[in-house]
Amino acid sequence: MNRHAFQPEEIMAYLDGELGASEARSAAAHIAHCAECQAIAGDLWRISDRLLGFQIEPCPESVDRRILEQASRNHGSQIEEQTREIKAAPTGVPGWVVTSASISILAVLALLIIPKIRPNVLVPGETALSRQGAGQASLGRPMGEAPGIAPDSDGPFHGLGDHAANSFSTNGQPVSDQQAQALAGASAGLEPPMVVHTAAMTILASNYDQASGAVEPLVTQHGGYVQDTTANTPTGSARSMNATLRVPEKHLEPFLADLGKLGHVEQETRNNQEVTGPYVDLTARLRNARAAEVRILGLLRTKTGNLGEVLQAEQELARIRSDIESLDGQRATMEREVRYATVFLRLDEEYRQQLNPRAFTTGTRIRNAVVAGFQNLEDSLLAVSLFLFSYGLPALVWLALAGTLSWFFWRRLHRARES
Amino acid sequence: MSDDDQLMLRFQQGSREAFRELFERYRDPVYGFFRRRIDHPSRAEELTQDCFLVLLRNAARYEARAGFRSYLYGIAIHLLANERRKAGREVPPRDDNSCPADNPNPEDTLWVRRALAELDENDREILMLREYEQLAYTEIAAVLDLPVNTVRSRLFRARIALKEKLMPVNGDFGGLL
């Protein structure tokens, strides 16, 4: 085994998707031509496949109800206190009473609710696999994770609500646009039409400090957050602040109304862009990519033949998962844009020129004059020195030349007169 | 930063929808984590509940350093250790004959349970985190506080050991060692 470029552990790491891209390529190329490593990979794969036999039933719904109730009650600092209360509460009531009551309530709710939900949940071709939940869905993946791709914690059905998860066709049939449109809003809890709201507001505040300090609490109060902010505080002129604020779409109107109270609204613009079409398209593409992922996972799980074909399937799986991640990110961004409206705020200070600027004292003025005098003296001396250094030497040369010529002509004139 | 981390940070900021999304994603995996390691389904249910309650309780202190999955399964591992400590003994995977009612392959489940029960405890935990919880080597290392190379070597050892136990069943394992 040591003569191999890759140790069995490395083969395992390759199949687990734990090697870097270049190493994975080398490993894939090696395995494709090495019967011994193909046998190792086959063994590891079969072990993983056998482990899939350890199936677990989905989580009981009673857990859902309890946890989600707590989550809906708990908020911020209240979380810890209320959790303690909840954990302490059952000690006073016998467990069987709580369990019996829960089962009874759930049974009644199930009888009332399930007939209404069921038609929307199931689609032709659905099997028990899609009902297994995330953990079981991920078991559909063989040990041979795509090289360079981290294990997908989400699994093929993760990241979607129950409706979306159950809309997959395990036989790999693409989901139609109509199905996607019907389920798009449901998966994100958004109702069509999906609109991205944007607003811009310019406010002139007489009390700038108070107004600028009130912006962030106001945003928080409406369940939003400050995305970015820039403050300008020039000396001798008005201060201003530019901020990008994100508030839940449902709070946009009251938020703008409250924002307008901070001062005089000089300008307000609104823009609403519908993105239902792009969102539906994105959702359909995502669903189809996930259906393709499920199909390939199924093939990988059942295929036992040529390893080259398996590696090819894994490469395709890696590409599809990359697409899924990208589409998922785009969809999440779009949902965020819809859920949270964007408000561009410009807050200007109502600046008043000072009528009685503070005068300098006499001492200060004398000191400034003296300092200015010394400064001028220094500047003038420096200027003379610079002039002499710059023009002194040429001037001396020309003066010497002119003097010599003058003296020469004067001598000749003087001698002529004497003779 | 992963999508899970972003959801957790949104939950920190007060978004209930973010927690609901996280819960939807990890409800079954966390329940499966306990169910495969605890004898009693009702206890696995309670521990699943406890796990999410701890997540709720500590949401304010969450920092997206090692990743959400490492954090979540770190909580689960901690709860499991407490459970085992309370029981005063190690709780291996179930070795009884009960299977979920909708399990299409009860014999496979039984066989896997028995094979896993025979593995070294540490190796088994790494193998299960990899195979069932689908954690990456680095995530397993973070959860169990082990070096990544140790995780890799133990995982390989566990798989080889499991292969030895597979031999009588399939008899076609000639590649490994």
Describe the protein:
The complex is a heterodimer of chains A (419) and B (177). Chain A is of the alpha+beta class and 419 residues long. Chain A is 60% helix and 12% strand. Chain A contains 14 helices and 5 strands. Chain A has a 5-stranded mixed sheet. In chain A, β2 and β3 (240-248) form a beta hairpin. In chain A, α12 packs antiparallel against α13 (307-339). Chain A is elongated, with a radius of gyration of 40 Å. In chain A, 31% of the residues are buried. Mean pLDDT of chain A is 72; it is low at 76-95 and 114-188. Chain B is mainly α. Chain B has 2 domains: 1-91, RNA polymerase sigma factor, region 2, helix turn helix motif (Rna Polymerase Sigma Factor, Chain: A), CATH 1.10.1740; 103-172, Winged helix-like DNA-binding domain superfamily/Winged helix DNA-binding domain (Arc Repressor Mutant, subunit A), CATH 1.10.10. Chain B is 68% helix and 0% strand. Chain B contains 8 helices and no strands. In chain B, α6 crosses α8. Chain B is globular and about 50 Å long. The chains are: A alpha+beta (419), B mainly alpha (177). At the A-B interface, α1, α3, α4, α5 and α7 of A face α1, α2, α3, α5 and α8 of B.
Task: Describe this structure in a few short sentences.
The complex is a heterodimer of chains A (419) and B (177). Helices cover 60% and strands 12% of the residues of chain A. Chain A has 419 residues and is an alpha+beta fold.
